[in-house]
Amino acid sequence: MMSAELLCVAVLNISMPNAEFACEQMEHVVNAAEDLSLEPEILIAMIHYESRWTARARSSGGACGLTQVIPRWTSPRKSCQQLLFPPISIYEGAKMLRRWIDTLGRGSLTKAEIEKQFFVDNSEADESEIIRGILIFNACHESNTTEKR
């Protein structure tokens, strides 16, 4: 696995928005990725896509923090305020990514199965949330498939 320092150099070299802040968080990214058996590059890409490394990012749909996790998806439950703290957001986002990969990696799921897996309070899933998860899974799956070729 790549070190936080090497990932920081890469982020700085591509002139990514908020690269210096991203570098400050890289140890958290590497630790979460290692703990959850993820590639840190995928987690970095997800954070870049979701928030452009803006720690206090909030969406109109209720997603919070660097990884734009919706509090009701967290277990144990985290508040939006907690998700604005970068180490918590990074770890919760990594947990969600790991769950999407593990669940969707075993084949197609019905909407009811996705709700059961991902919605802690069993409330109705928003279609855009399901689509977002499938897109994230597909990106990761394509990355793994490409590596095996």
Compact description:
The chain has 149 residues and is mostly helical. It has helices spanning 4-13, 19-35, 40-51, 80-83, 86-104, 111-118, 127-148. Helix 1 (4-13) packs antiparallel against helix 2 (19-35), helix 2 (19-35) packs across helix 5 and helix 5 (86-104) crosses helix 7.
Properties at a glance:
62% helix; globular; mainly alpha; Lysozyme; 149 residues; disordered C terminus
Describe it:
The protein is an all-alpha fold. The chain has 7 helices and no strands. It has a single domain (4-148), classed as Orthogonal Bundle (Lysozyme), CATH 1.10.530. 62% of the residues lie in helices and 0% in strands. The protein is globular, with a radius of gyration of 15 Å. It has helices spanning 4-13, 19-35, 40-51, 80-83, 86-104, 111-118, 127-148. 32% of the residues are buried.
- Rounded radius of gyration (Å): 15 Å
Percentage of residues in helical conformation = 55-70%
* Beta-strand percent range: under 5%
* Strand elements, count: 0
The mean pLDDT is: 80
Instruction: Name the overall outline.
Output: globular
Biggest pleated sheet:
none
Distance between the termini: 20 Å
Query: What is the CATH topology?
Result: Lysozyme
How many separate domains?
1
Q: Spans with pLDDT under 50 lasting ≥5 residues?
A: 141-149
The SSE order reads HHHHHHH
The number of distinct helices, counting runs of at least 4 residues, comes to 7
CATH architecture call: Orthogonal Bundle
Itemize the secondary structure elements and their pairings:
Layout (H helix, E strand, L loop, with lengths): L3 H10 L5 H17 L4 H12 L28 H4 L2 H19 L6 H8 L8 H22 L1
